[in-house]
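Q: I'm building a small set of examples for a reading group on sequence design. Run inverse folding on the following structure and report the sequence directly after it, with nothing in between.
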């Protein structure tokens, strides 16, 4: 729903990809794991935002159907 929330999710996911790649390149398992976690967190946040949008659209459709 919120553009800021969607941006935050994408930023978290992108940052996770960078951390993961850096961890892989340097052999730093902890950094790689943090990157994977951030990537997953960002993806989950993005999915939640899509779900909120879908719920809002469904609500609007129901309202429109009963006008």
């Amino acid at each position: 729903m919120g553009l800021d929330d969607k941006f935050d999710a994408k930023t978290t996911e992108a940052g996770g990809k960078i951390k993961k790649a850096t961890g892989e390149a340097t052999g730093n398992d902890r950094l790689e794991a943090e990157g994977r976690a951030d990537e997953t967190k960002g993806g989950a946040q993005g999915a939640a935002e899509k779900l909120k949008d879908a719920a809002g659209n469904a609500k609007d459709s129901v309202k429109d159907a009963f006008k």
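DSSP finds two helices and no strands in the chain.
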